[in-house]
């Protein structure tokens, strides 16, 4: 008899929170960009929540030698959220794709999602989209969003049928206004493919070159985020303020939490209601604590 097929390994996640944050100087001269506040939570909470919403429970945080201890102090081992955190140093900001080389042995042939530490994605149906991306057995998935300044991003162009044609990093003359967001899903080959990425003219291992490999073999899925979605790159003063205002508006007007790993952990079943109450108690003097307590109370009475 033939042996039954081996179950696929659970997808892992990488949260890249390195860089020097030069576009936010002087704020980032003393603190990591990803630890700055976006309304009532540190910036890193938002991409972390996104990875958890995709069902990912093994997450590596990559940051600079100076900043990594602060992330450990903030996040610990992840057990409070029902997940597992690992930490690695990125000695110098040599490109997003470098994250897969840093985490290569830890990935150990697993599929992987990568989230940039300064990106916020919000949508009512985001969980469905993320889990669809994480469950694709082969290829890669990226998300595209229409922007007014596409020359700042990796830009994807489409043919008349909506199929992705090419991705160009920070083009001088963009062929579309669809920017690739800072959230990427890859199959188990990503660790090996990342080794083939060569430094770009600006000396970085570009994530766009990795995405182009999948595109050329016909296995890159580009999911376009429409009107019901919001994507914010909080890496500049204006966008940092816009992100904070957006979160404040949603939470104060709708009573709905945005970017809360505590809430996501509970809704995903990673923690129970008693553990949620303990997390609420840690921040009991804040509006976040009140909303978490309300969530726990509602779950008990439902």
Automatic annotation (TrEMBL):
<dbReference type="InterPro" id="IPR005907">
    <property type="entry name" value="G1P_thy_trans_s"/>
</dbReference>
<dbReference type="InterPro" id="IPR005835">
    <property type="entry name" value="NTP_transferase_dom"/>
</dbReference>
<comment type="function">
    <text>Catalyzes the formation of dTDP-glucose, from dTTP and glucose 1-phosphate, as well as its pyrophosphorolysis.</text>
</comment>
<comment type="similarity">
    <text>Belongs to the glucose-1-phosphate thymidylyltransferase family.</text>
</comment>
<keyword id="KW-0460">Magnesium</keyword>
<dbReference type="GO" id="GO:0008879">
    <property type="term" value="F:glucose-1-phosphate thymidylyltransferase activity"/>
</dbReference>
<keyword id="KW-0548">Nucleotidyltransferase</keyword>
<keyword id="KW-0479">Metal-binding</keyword>
<dbReference type="InterPro" id="IPR029044">
    <property type="entry name" value="Nucleotide-diphossugar_trans"/>
</dbReference>
<dbReference type="Pfam" id="PF00483">
    <property type="entry name" value="NTP_transferase"/>
</dbReference>
<protein>
    <recommendedName>
        <fullName>Glucose-1-phosphate thymidylyltransferase</fullName>
        <ecNumber>2.7.7.24</ecNumber>
    </recommendedName>
</protein>
<dbReference type="GO" id="GO:0046872">
    <property type="term" value="F:metal ion binding"/>
</dbReference>
<keyword id="KW-0808">Transferase</keyword>
<feature type="domain" description="Nucleotidyl transferase">
    <location>
        <begin position="12"/>
        <end position="248"/>
    </location>
</feature>
């Amino acid at each position: 008899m033939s042996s039954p097929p081996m179950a696929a390994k659970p997808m892992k996640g990488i949260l890249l929170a390195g860089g020097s944050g030069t576009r936010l100087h002087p704020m980032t001269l003393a603190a990591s960009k990803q630890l700055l506040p976006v309304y009532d939570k540190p910036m890193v909470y938002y991409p972390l929540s996104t990875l958890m919403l995709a069902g990912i429970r093994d997450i590596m945080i990559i940051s600079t030698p100076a900043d990594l201890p602060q992330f450990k102090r903030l996040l610990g081992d992840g057990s409070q959220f029902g997940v597992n955190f690992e930490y690695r140093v990125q000695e110098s900001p040599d490109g997003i794709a470098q994250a897969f080389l840093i985490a290569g042995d830890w990935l150990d042939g697993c599929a992987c999602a990568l989230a940039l530490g300064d990106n916020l994605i919000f949508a009512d149906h985001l969980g469905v989209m993320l889990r669809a991306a994480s469950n694709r057995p082969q290829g890669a998935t990226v998300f595209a969003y229409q922007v007014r300044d596409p020359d700042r991003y990796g830009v994807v162009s489409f043919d008349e049928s909506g199929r992705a044609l090419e991705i160009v990093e920070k083009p001088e003359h963009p062929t579309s206004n669809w920017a690739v967001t800072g959230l990427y899903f890859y199959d188990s080959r990503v660790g090996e493919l990342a080794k083939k990425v060569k430094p770009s003219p600006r000396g970085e291992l570009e994530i766009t070159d990795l995405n182009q490999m999948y595109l050329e073999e016909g296995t890159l899925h580009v999911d376009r985020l429409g009107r019901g979605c919001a994507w914010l790159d909080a890496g500049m003063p204006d966008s940092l303020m816009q992100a904070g205002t957006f979160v404040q508006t949603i939470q104060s007007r709708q009573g709905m939490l945005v970017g809360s790993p505590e809430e996501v952990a509970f809704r995903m079943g990673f923690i129970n209601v008693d553990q949620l109450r303990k997390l609420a108690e840690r921040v009991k003097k804040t509006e976040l604590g009140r909303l978490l307590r309300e969530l726990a109370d509602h779950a008990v009475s439902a």
